[in-house]
Each structure stands twice: as structure tokens, then as C-alpha cells.
Amino acid sequence: MKKHSPRDTLFRVDSINEDFVFNEHVVEVFDDMLDRSVPFYGEVIRSSARLLDCFLHSGDTVYDLGCATGTTLLEFSRILERKGLHFIGIDNSAAMLDKARLKAKIYSKEDSLDFLKEDITTIHHPGTGAFIVNYTMQFIRPLKREEFVQRIYSNLRPGGILLLSEKVISHDRRINREYIDIYHAFKRSRGYSELEIAKKREALENILIPFSIDENRALLSNCGFQSVETYFQWFNFASFIAVKPA
Ligand SMILES: Nc1ncnc2c1ncn2[C@@H]1O[C@H](C[S@+](CC[C@H]([NH3+])C(=O)[O-])CC(=O)[O-])[C@@H](O)[C@H]1O
Ligand SMILES: O=C(O)C(=O)Cc1ccccc1
């Protein structure tokens, strides 16, 4: 998939000096950016697929909220091909969805994947088997998150699951600082310069607002999810499974 994605150089020169938005410049380099900015991106997707395999039944529908260019659903449709699931990606960026549809076509998956332009905070898709929300709730205003998760909960069928991946913070200042440094070292190892890392950090300030693992857990529990666990963590990145009671 990387073949189709030019390298992310958005923060190399003075091309972006404003808050981060998902415009066409971002979309063009987006797959390369996620691949180099999210630790174990592919492993999180494959682990998520395992959980879908455990919890879902044939005929279930999976919605990927904030699906971006559709990478996750393409991988699911490959791994879970024989399970008889329906995969639908939702995003509010037309540019992202254009790219997602193009990729689905390139990989001959147009028949098993659908993409909808909707606001993920106002969805109405009752009876859903699973919602995937990867690296997207972190962009929703904190005060709006409970309503967002509540809506996901009420749209799940009994026994359905939410798989949530987020950048997280620690309220222990020392640990938090070290995790951020480790993450920046990871980005340097993936070819980003100090300046690019610093500029990106500034652009995301007040836009990407991470909760701690405990805050995310509490949020999920408060909305009715009784079983909540993490299934992946790498320093300040974590993935959660939350199951709606059957
Ligand atoms: N209110 C909203 N309604 C619809 N879409 C939204 C909204 N807010 C943001 N988005 C969309 O959420 C996506 C977030 S990217 C998720 C990565 C993906 N999950 C991945 O695993 O590849 C993360 C990132 O860009 O850092 C973008 O495509 C936005 O257009
Ligand atoms: O690039 C960064 O520094 C980020 O934190 C961005 C990010 C993190 C996780 C998912 C998507 C984007």
C-alpha cells in the first residue's frame, strides 16, 4: 500500500505553519504519515482483526469511524475474508474518502467495502456488531466525548464491541515526559527531523487532546460498557476493547 503514498514532508519546510487540518495536502501523504507516526500501526490493525474474529458473527456490520484512507478496513477485508462481515468506513473528509474508494478499487475490494461521508458524532446505525475508532476520538473536544461514546454504545447490538485506539498521556509528569521523548525518538528513527517533529507537535497542540488510560477506561464504563480492557500499549499509545453486555 505504501507504493501509492508519497512521503510526508509537510513539516519539512514552511509549507504548514497553521493548525492541523485534513486537507488535500495531508491526504496525499497521509498513509506514509500514519505508517511513520503511529507505533505498531499494522500490528494494532491485525490484533483488532483477531478480536473481530472472536466477537462477531457472520452477517455483522463493522463501522470504522474516522476511516481516513480506508487502510484498516482493507486489511480487515483481507484477513477476515471468509467471515461474511460488512465493512463500512465513515469520515467527513471528501478527500480522504476519495482515496479510500480508489484504494478499494485498486485492491479489487469495491464489493466488500463501503465508504460514507458523515459526521461520526451524529451517526445512527443501530444493530452494529463493532465500531472501530482508531486515533480519532483524540480529535473530538473532551466535553463531547461522553456523548460520542454513548452514541456508539446505543448503536451496538447486545454483545457488540468498540475497539478504540488513542494516543494517551500519563498524569505522572516524569513518566509522561519520558514517554513523549521515546515517541519522538521513534519518529526520528522513522526519518522525521527534530524540526519536523517540533512543528507537528505545535500544530497538534489544542487539537489532539489525549486522555490517560484511566480516563478512557472511566469514559467507557460510564457509558455502560461493563467489560473494558486494553489489548495493546506502546508507551503513550493504547488500544482498548469495550464489550456491550449481551
Ligand atoms: N467529526 C468527524 N466526523 C467524521 N470524520 C472525522 C471527524 N473528525 C475527524 N474525522 C476524520 O478522522 C480521521 C482521523 S485519522 C484516523 C486514522 C485512521 N482511523 C486509521 O487508523 O488509518 C488520524 C489522524 O489523521 O491523525 C480523519 O480522516 C478525519 O477526517
Ligand atoms: O505525529 C504526531 O506527533 C502525532 O502525535 C500524530 C498522530 C498520533 C497518532 C495518530 C495519528 C496522528
UniProtKB/TrEMBL annotation:
It catalyses: prephenate + S-adenosyl-L-methionine = carboxy-S-adenosyl-L-methionine + 3-phenylpyruvate + H2O. Pfam families: Methyltransf_25. Residues 62-160 form the Methyltransferase domain. Its EC number is 2.1.3.-. S-adenosyl-L-methionine binds at residues 41, 91-92, 119-120, 134, 201. InterPro entries: CmoA (IPR005271), Methyltransf_25 (IPR041698). It is an enzyme of class 2 (transferase). GO terms for molecular function: carboxyl- or carbamoyltransferase activity; S-adenosyl-L-methionine binding. Belongs to the class I-like SAM-binding methyltransferase superfamily. Cx-SAM synthase family. This is Carboxy-S-adenosyl-L-methionine synthase. The gene is cmoA.
